[in-house]
Amino acid sequence: MSGTIQLGVNVDHVATLRQARGTRYPDPVMAAWLAEQAGADSITVHLREDRRHIQERDLEVLARTLQTRMNLEMALAEPVIAIAERLRPADVCLVPERRAELTTEGGLDVAGDLARVRSASERLAQAGIRVAPFIDPDERQLDACRAAGVGVVELHTGRYAEAADGAGRGRELERVRRAARHANSLGIEVHAGHGLNYQNVQPVAAIAAINELNIGHAIVARALFDGFAAAVAEMKRLMLAARGA
Ligand code: PXP
């Protein structure tokens, strides 16, 4: 809706690395701080039911320390709705969640679950939280979001990102573009994300109807290699210094 675009940085996979070894590092809170220093407009975290990456402790610290906005991704489930009501992130993104999935695989079926989406959105709105269902770029789902009374949606860009060839990517980009315009025509603000990376982000970022992109995996993966040589050199320096070299 506006001439600019915001970046929400998802720090879940910093926590994935921490949980893989049960250590205290790397800390997603530190990643959030660095992201904010680098220009992130919000920090996205997904508190999954199985707690595979982000922990409640992370949310508690982020709620007290973030200088931008917290965008909490969560399922439509009572325990996590209660956590959101207590911590009051600026934004909640309602996502479908299945234990076996590697990542969020599809959009939320708002049309098929209208009453639950509406009642959760109303509850969260009463806590001052903006609610955005994560949906496929589909006009039927957008009309349902309107009926549920939500003012923001996040469009799933996974099919665009995973398209097998240029023609498929072009078709999926057009679906995202059309859905974003339709949302704007309903007075709904549009965010988008999933699978966006350094190769495919620009055509989506160019869609004027989109206000914000949420990106995680590609940024965490890039950061790993941006820091790899320095990390190895520091370990070698410490080892040599221990021998008086
Ligand atoms: N938006 C939503 C709703 C998501 O579930 C995810 C993945 O956690 C993202 C954006 C970010 O996706 P990616 O890690 O592929 O950038």
Which stretches are low in confidence, meaning pLDDT under 50 for 5 or more residues running? none
Could you describe the largest sheet, including whether it forms a barrel? 8 strands, parallel, barrel
**Principal-axes shape call:** globular
Q: Give me the side-by-side strand order of the main sheet.
A: 1-2-3-4-5-6-7-8
Number of helices in the DSSP assignment: 10
| Number of strand elements | 8
Give the ligands present. pyridoxine-5'-phosphate
Helix/strand-derived class?
A: alpha/beta
Radius of gyration, Cα only, in angstroms? 19 Å
Beta-strand content bin: 15-25%
The mean pLDDT is 96
Q: Kindly state the percentage of residues in helix.
A: 40-55%
End-to-end span in angstroms?
59 Å
Give the SSE order as H and E letters. Answer: EHHEHEHEHEHEHHEHEH
Describe the structure.
With about 240 residues, the protein is an alpha/beta fold. The chain is about 50% helix and about 15% strand. Helix 2 (about 30-35) runs parallel beside helix 3 (about 55-65). The longest helix is centred in the last third of the chain and has 26 residues, at about 215-240. The relative contact order is 0.12. The mean pLDDT is about 95. Pyridoxine-5'-phosphate (PXP) binds near residues 104 and 193.
Task: Give the topology.
Blueprint: E1 6-10, H1 12-21, H2 28-37, E2 42-46, H3 56-65, E3 69-74, H4 78-87, E4 91-94, H5 114-126, E5 130-135, H6 139-148, E6 152-156, H7 158-162, H8 166-185, E7 189-193, H9 201-205, E8 212-215, H10 217-242
Parallel strand pairs: 1-2, 1-8, 2-3, 3-4, 4-5, 5-6, 6-7, 7-8
The chain binds pyridoxine-5'-phosphate.
